[in-house]
Request: fold
Amino acid sequence: MVNNSNALLHINFKYVLIILLLLFSVPETYAKTENDSTKKVKIAAIPIINYNASQGALIGALGQAFYKLNAQDTISPSSSTGLFGIYTTNSTFFTALFQNLYWNEDKWRAKVAAGFGQMNFQYWQQLPINDGAFVDFSTDATFALARIERKVFKQLYFGVEGTLSKAETGFDLPDFVPDSIRYDSRNMNNIGILLNYDLRDHQMNPYSGFNVSFKNLIYKTWLNSGNDFNKIELVYNHYYPIKNERNIIVSRFKTSIASGDVPFQGQSVVGQDDIRGYTAGKYRNNQIYALQAEYRWRFYKKWGMVGFAGLASAVESASDLFSTSLLPGAGVGLRYMMIPSERINVGFDVAAGKDDWGLYFRIGESFGR
Reply:
């Protein structure tokens, strides 16, 4: 056990060193090009290197191009086109292309995305003895998403969204388990409405203001979805400047509530931005609640750091909230402002959760997508 722990510590330290070298070298290359005010397209790119006990070492890249659809439109945020791809040592891979559009003085917003890949992961199965155990699974997935929003009153946006998705999942279970349980193939098509009240001063990296978003997605057999269920998402972000934009406190609340005939693929998992520090996939259920705060400090020119902490809960229904233990998460991160005119930061976060941890690369700040 001691030898395994030392080996894992050595692997983690090696990856952290690589990450630091990349962060200190890559941003400087792009910083030299951003001073050209005549450039119509500005590019941010960052390598992705990660490690976790569930999927092993991860390598990939994330790149985005930022531009104005109309150079005379000074109100609309910059539109962007991005490409993302990753591969891990347990043969997980995923790639996606995404497009964000803002036009007509920010009266219209749209997003389209498409991707495919294979995720080899695990989930926690409760058992009558030994509390439970992790079960490995592999999912081949493809998806295409489209969303459009229109400003209808002051800063209130109304929109519609739809997704076409197919998932084929195989579970690593003993041979005596029926194939109907070991293998699953289903469509996860949905359509829904969204409301977004947005008083942030910026889309990617706000210094002040707040936004509240509500989304109600329906998965129905008449949409060729494999199950009939609903999913509601409610998000509230608030940005508090302390003296100036170099010191910001952010608070966030998010809940995702699925009801009806919810399949395995329709559940939510604690992790990523809600809450960082969980990568093992142990905590998943029909409903997720997460509350957190983050301090952002730009301490020297383009360099900054963040510190964050929060609590989450994964439950089958709201009535279980007060009988389920809370899941804490906390961490720190390093930032470099690659494109000051667009407030585009690149960086990474390191976070610890309950018997878990995570390392996260990003373009843009948390809660900004």
